[in-house]
Amino acid sequence: METTTEKNTATFTHLSALTQYFFPFGNYIFPILIWTSKKDKSEFIDFHGKQVLNFQLSLLLYSLLLIMVAVPIFIFTVFSNIPFNAIANDNDYIINNFNIGDNIGIITVGLVAVFLFLLLKVAEFFLIIYAAIKTSNGEKYKYPITIPFIK
Predict the structure, then answer these.
(1) Residue 113, CB half-sphere, CA atoms under 13 Å: how many?
(2) Which of 35, 109, 124, 134 could form a disulfide with 139 if both were Cys (CB 3.0 to 4.6 A apart)?
(3) % of the chain with per-residue pLDDT over 70
(4) How far apart are the C-alpha atoms of 45 and 3, rounded to whole Å?
């Protein structure tokens, strides 16, 4: 049976991932600080600290993959209609013959990647809140779509 202190610490470990909205890399720094300071004292805190960090690392990997798909697609789509000579000579160039029909397939793939990225960020927010609620009730919660980097 977990004590109230252990439940609160584990819950705060989950909620500390939300600091990413205030501090860069706060979703890694604060959970690591809380987890490492208490992991030896409680198996419950150790379990939840690993879950938070694995979830955040998994989301980082998924986000990087989606960005690696979306950014080159948008760069290719924009610059495929601009002559290299105009870029190299710093000339003004007006895109007046851009045909979206020629690029609809690749643009769709890029937009799907951006949509999945946004969906991932919204799901992350709600899953963190849900995990914190489950943890505060003393339950062991495993995030979905998580790669177990830390075992």
Answers:
(1) 19
(2) 134
(3) 85
(4) 11
Q: Are 132 and 18 in contact (CB under 8 A)?
A: no
Which of the 8 DSSP states describes residue 100?
G
HSE at residue 12, side-chain half, CA atoms within 13 A, is: 13
Q: At what angle do helices 4-15 and 43-79 cross, to 10 degrees?
A: 10
DSSP letters spanning 19-62? GGGTSTTHHHHHHHHHHHHHTTT-HHHHHHHHHHHHHHHHHHHH
Which pair of tokens denotes residue 23? 């501090």
Cβ–Cβ under 8 Å, residues 49 and 12: no
Task: Give tens-digit pLDDT for 57-108.
Answer: 999 999 999 989 888 887 877 777 666 666 667 666 666 566 667 777 777 8
How many angstroms separate the CA atoms of 17 and 128, rounded? 8
